[in-house]
Amino acid sequence: MSYKAITNRSSKQYKLQQIASTGTYGIRIVDSRYLVAIGTAFNAEVGTYIDLILEDGFVIPCIVGDVKSPRHTDSSNMITMHNGCVSEFIIDSKALHKSIKKSGDVSSCNENWNGCVRAIVVYSKSAL
């Protein structure tokens, strides 16, 4: 998901992008954590710190940068319908790592990310 799609200046999503920067792989970051969009099933507001836990136990530190509309997720409000993922990284298209551009898969840029998300840990801490 391109961060440029976030245009409502009064939204939390937009405010978060104002303190974000483009980091490793062209993914937007705040506090050394990657910004992601997730479904409503996780009861996490924009700005909430979360961790994506992969099948092998590898942890990707993240912050909720956007919450997916239920119309874009399955009936559990977890899985994004168009790609089958539980999270979508918020990216800067111009800075996106070439392997991601080629494959369309963020896991292609980091060998430690080569696995499915098996859990999401939601913290009470917020970046906003």
Largest sheet properties: 7 strands, mixed
First-last Cα distance: 20 Å
Number of strands: 7
Overall body shape: globular
Query: How does the helix and strand content classify structurally?
Result: mainly beta
H/E series: HEEEEEEHE
Beta strand %: 25-35%
* Rg for CA atoms: 14 Å
Instruction: Please give the count of helices.
Output: 2
Mean pLDDT: 92
Binned, the helix content reads 10-25%
List low-pLDDT spans: none
Describe the fold and architecture.
With 128 residues, the chain is mainly β. The chain has 2 helices and 7 strands, in the order αββββββαβ.
Q: Could you name the key traits of this structure?
A:
2 helices; mainly beta; 128 residues
Summarize the structure.
Strands 1, 2, 3, 4, 5, 6 and 7 form a 7-stranded mixed beta sheet that branches. This protein is mainly beta.
Q: Could you give the topology of this structure?
A:
Elements (H helix, E strand, L loop, with lengths): L11 H8 L1 E2 L5 E3 L2 E6 L9 E7 L4 E9 L19 E3 L8 H6 L13 E10 L2
Parallel strand pairs: 3-5
Antiparallel strand pairs: 1-2, 2-3, 3-6, 4-5, 4-7
